[in-house]
């Protein structure tokens, strides 16, 4: 291949056969093997550095050439485009003699353009003019793409020279190609530019090599000090001894550094202490050891045969400091399994079991913030290791998050676990009364501590509670009971009962303390779950009350939505659909960072603020700017730092007349747009920081949505999860929205939730799907009005005719009055251009726009005033009226009911007849 050297043959590395085959031969390799480890590392690092720098030289040189060629293509395209669009080029191409008119300008343009040649050609490639005049009339190949209207750049190889060239079409206003302009830089020039960079590249490589060799020498020197200059054979022997200690010695060995972190543990120590795989380097208190064992190992005390509990084993521990014997500061511990000692086996086994149960209770009870599940975990963790059956009863308000009040006279059975399913106990869900005095349960509730009933067969007080049920239990084999109240913060939440049956030893006095400890841990977890349930219910109720229950009536969009709160804690996601004047609709979706009541209340404040700001009919970017300023003020006034900075919002306004959608966002995810043909894209929107930061202005993006497009707004809880990053979530959303393409908004919501909902929702999810409609053009009437009061009558008459065509004669007179007033005001007080638009939608919308930004306002005219009552007339005749500002002025609009209705008594306002006569005119 040109430009590349032929591959070299690599040595096989085999030794020559013969009598000297097994002997070491002098040379670099054997000299290297005889050196220390530090010396070998030095030579290998230098070798690697040389190879890497050589490879880098090759890559940098190749990249420099590619960059130069690309730069040449860009300069060529810029020059060709500039000349193609230059004044007079198109006219010269249409002339009788293009060469005569173009050749001088081509030669003049060549100087200072940064290219080697410029050529003007016919569409078939024939040169009209060229920097090299000898090439005029010659035909250029490879320009067919430009002749079809496509500008391109390439590396051209052929006559008259290899070059980085660009070809740009010269087109008529109607798009027809009438000629081509080519510009380029010769490959030889490109090569010269690259050659000019080679000295710098080689100097940089030499400097890098020197730096690498220097750093390698420093590393080697450091390694030499660390390894004390030992050779490979000595190091191999040391590692062989190290492996023997790690794997072959049947006594546990631990080395703990001076900072209490585990430096080394052999296999036996890992087995005895059940160390995790990643134990090396972690602090001994983080290894899940018994607290007394962890304290001993981290204290560096010297002990001999001190017995400690390690899981199901009793381990004799010996510790000694390492520093006096030449090692680094720390200690070494040896472990020996002494579980088989018969003198300690019985007592130790019971202690181990109790400790194991308590440990498991701390891990397994309270894994969720669900009251019922926490009660079930209490029952499951103690069966069968402590009791054969466990029942848990809670007071009625507790599972619902309520605070228990009054004496605990009855409780509802919440959990039941046992070694057999055919038990004699009342099922879960039954009410259990506690009214009989003298029972173990009553004594436990009264005293606040565990009560033992060692032999139920002779416990008459226990039978008094439920004689029939007690008889069934005794007949079944239940013979022993420990009952413990579940108390937290001094409040009784419920009761747990531990039962033993046939084949098990009766409970003893030593079981009471353990049962109380177990119940105390469970009570704290149940109380936490209860309080969370209360807060969650309050926050969810508040949030749902603040979210829209019914979407408003409007004709611009078919809308469907879904909202799901987080399973753990309610967040601050919200959405809204807000009808705007001019048949437009605003779509809003937002997310408040955080969870709980504060997030839900904050969401309500922001939603109310968006509703209020939307009444001003502001563009999306201006509305978000006002909202951002409001959030900043709230954050400054909020006590205790409980601000709302971090809220995100996306605000979109859709106009069914033009099909335009203006979108702006503050820290929120971009919406998805599903076109009618099923293609899905996520438009690039300018991203501003979340609300409340106030660091950058907001920007709006204009989207043109064909009728039938679907605009999908959502919060991050839909696409982001602990098992799925946001990019994967958006890719899945894209796939879901694209298949199939003709879903309704309701079907789209169903499909998205069916496919994308995570198993456990850590965040709220809000989804809003809107399918666009366009207002029928036959229901739109528009007129441009000159700045002349005489033009009002003509527009009024045209409006009356159009209302007759629409069958709205009932409201023609009131519309004529409204239009006359608005037009007269625009002509008197506004500026050109003046435009009138009527929209026949759910209501009749009348819009008068002008170039002035002065807004009209309603006022009370005095009896002697000759005018000033027009807007009062408009307010009486229309359902709503208002003003919105545009980039070129303002629009004053009104909405009238289609059914008409009785006219107001306008005679109550003196002077109104004169105003009407003045506005209506002849």
TrEMBL record:
A GO cellular component annotation in the UniProt record: plasma membrane
Pfam families linked: GAF, HATPase_c_2, sCache_3_2, SpoIIE
Positions of the GAF domain: 360-536
Record's compositionally biased regions (Basic residues): 1-13
GO BP annotations, alphabetical order: phosphorelay signal transduction system
InterPro entries: Bact_Sigma-Reg, GAF, GAF-like_dom_sf, HATPase_C_sf, HATPase_dom, PAS, PAS-like_dom_sf, PPM-type-like_dom_sf
Disordered: annotated span: 1-25
Subcellular location: Cell membrane
Any one GO MF annotation of this record: ATP binding
Protein name: SpoIIE family protein phosphatase
Originating organism: Streptomyces chumphonensis
């Amino acid at each position: 291949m040109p430009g590349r050297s032929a591959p070299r043959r690599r040595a096989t590395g085999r030794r020559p056969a013969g009598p000297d085959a097994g002997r070491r031969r002098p040379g670099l390799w054997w000299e290297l093997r005889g050196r220390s480890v530090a010396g070998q590392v030095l030579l290998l690092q230098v070798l690697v550095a040389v190879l890497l720098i050589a490879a880098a030289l090759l890559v940098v040189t190749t990249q420099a050439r590619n960059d130069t060629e690309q730069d040449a293509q860009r300069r060529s395209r810029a020059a060709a485009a500039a000349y193609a669009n230059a004044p007079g080029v198109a006219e010269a191409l249409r002339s009788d003699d293009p060469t005569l008119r173009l050749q001088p300008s081509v030669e003049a343009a060549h100087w200072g353009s940064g290219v080697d040649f410029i050529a003007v050609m016919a569409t078939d490639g024939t040169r009209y003019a060229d920097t090299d005049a000898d090439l005029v009339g010659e035909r250029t190949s490879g320009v067919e793409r430009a002749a079809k209207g496509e500008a391109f750049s390439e590396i051209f190889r052929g006559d008259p020279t290899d070059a980085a060239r660009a070809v740009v079409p010269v087109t008529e206003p109607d798009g027809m190609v009438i000629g081509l302009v080519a510009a380029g830089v010769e490959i030889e020039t490109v090569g010269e530019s690259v050659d000019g960079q080679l000295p710098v590249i080689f100097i940089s490589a030499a400097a890098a090599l020197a730096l690498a060799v220097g750093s390698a020498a420093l590393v080697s020197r450091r390694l030499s000090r660390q390894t004390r200059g030992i050779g490979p054979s000595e190091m191999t022997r040391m590692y062989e001894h190290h492996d023997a200690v790690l794997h072959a010695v049947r006594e546990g060995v631990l080395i703990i550094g001076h900072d209490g972190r585990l430096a080394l543990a052999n296999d036996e120590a890992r087995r005895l202490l059940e160390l995790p795989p990643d134990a090396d380097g972690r602090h001994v208190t983080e290894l899940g050891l018994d607290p007394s064992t962890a304290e001993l190992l981290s204290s560096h005390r010297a002990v001999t045969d001190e017995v400690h509990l390690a899981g199901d084993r009793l381990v004799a521990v010996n510790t000694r400091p390492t520093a006096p014997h030449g090692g680094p500061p720390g200690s070494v511990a040896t472990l020996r399994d002494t579980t088989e000692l018969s003198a300690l086996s019985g007592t130790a086994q019971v202690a181990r079991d109790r400790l194991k149960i308590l440990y498991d209770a701390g891990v397994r009870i309270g894994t969720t913030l669900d009251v019922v599940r926490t009660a079930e975990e209490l029952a499951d963790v103690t069966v069968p290791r402590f009791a054969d059956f466990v029942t848990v009863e809670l007071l009625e308000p507790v599972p619902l998050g309520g605070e228990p009040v009054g004496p605990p006279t009855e409780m509802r059975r919440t959990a039941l676990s046992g070694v057999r399913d055919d038990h004699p106990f009342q099922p879960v869900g039954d009410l259990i009364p506690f009214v009989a005095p003298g029972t173990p349960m009553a004594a436990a509730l009264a005293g606040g501590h565990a009560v033992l009933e060692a032999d139920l067969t002779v416990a008459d007080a226990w039978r008094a509670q439920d004689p029939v049920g007690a008889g069934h239990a005794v007949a079944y084999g239940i013979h022993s009971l420990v009952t413990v109240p579940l108390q937290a913060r001094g409040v009784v939440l419920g009761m747990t009962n531990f039962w033993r049956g046939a084949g098990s030893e009766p409970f003893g006095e030593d079981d009471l303390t353990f049962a109380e400890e177990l119940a105390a841990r469970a009570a704290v977890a149940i109380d936490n779950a209860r309080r969370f349930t209360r807060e969650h219910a309050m926050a969810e109720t508040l949030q749902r009350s603040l979210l829209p229950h019914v979407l408003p009536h409007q004709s611009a969009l078919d809308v469907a939505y879904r909202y799901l709160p987080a399973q753990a804690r309610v967040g601050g996601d919200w959405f809204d659909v807000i009808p705007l004047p001019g048949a437009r609709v605003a779509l809003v979706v937002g997310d408040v960072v955080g969870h709980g009541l504060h997030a839900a209340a904050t969401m309500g404040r922001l939603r109310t603020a968006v509703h209020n700001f939307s009444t001003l009919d502001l563009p999306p970017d201006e509305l978000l700017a006002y909202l951002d300023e409001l959030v900043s003020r709230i954050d400054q006034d909020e006590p205790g730092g409980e601000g709302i900075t971090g809220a995100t919002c996306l605000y979109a306004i859709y106009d069914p007349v033009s099909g335009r959608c203006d979108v702006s966002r503050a820290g929120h995810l971009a919406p998805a747009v599903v076109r009618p043909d099923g293609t899905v894209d996520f438009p690039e929107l300018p991203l501003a920081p979340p609300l409340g930061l106030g660091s950058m202005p907001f920007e709006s993006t204009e989207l043109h949505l064909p009728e039938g497009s679907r605009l999908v707004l959502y919060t991050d809880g839909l696409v982001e999860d602990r098992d799925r990053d946001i990019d994967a979530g958006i890719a899945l959303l894209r796939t879901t929205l694209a298949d199939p393409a003709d879903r309704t908004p309701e079907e789209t919501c169903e499909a998205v939730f069916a496919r994308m909902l995570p198993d456990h929702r850590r965040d709220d999810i809000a989804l809003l799907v809107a399918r666009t409609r366009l207002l029928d053009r036959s229901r739109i009437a528009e007129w441009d009005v000159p700045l002349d009061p005489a033009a009002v009558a003509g527009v009024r008459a045209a409006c009356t005719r159009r209302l007759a065509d629409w069958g709205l004669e009932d409201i023609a007179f009131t519309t004529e009055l409204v239009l006359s007033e608005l037009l007269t005001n625009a002509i008197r007080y506004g500026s050109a251009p003046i435009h009138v638009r009527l929209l026949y939608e759910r209501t009749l919308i009348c819009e008068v726009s002008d170039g002035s930004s002065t807004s009209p306002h309603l006022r009370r005219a005095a009896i002697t005033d000759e005018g000033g009552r027009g807007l009062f007339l408009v307010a009486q005749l229309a359902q709503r009226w208002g003003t919105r500002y545009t980039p070129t002025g303002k629009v004053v609009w009104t909405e009238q009911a289609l059914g008409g209705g009785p006219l107001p008594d306008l005679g109550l306002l003196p002077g109104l007849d004169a105003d009407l006569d003045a506005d209506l005119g002849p």
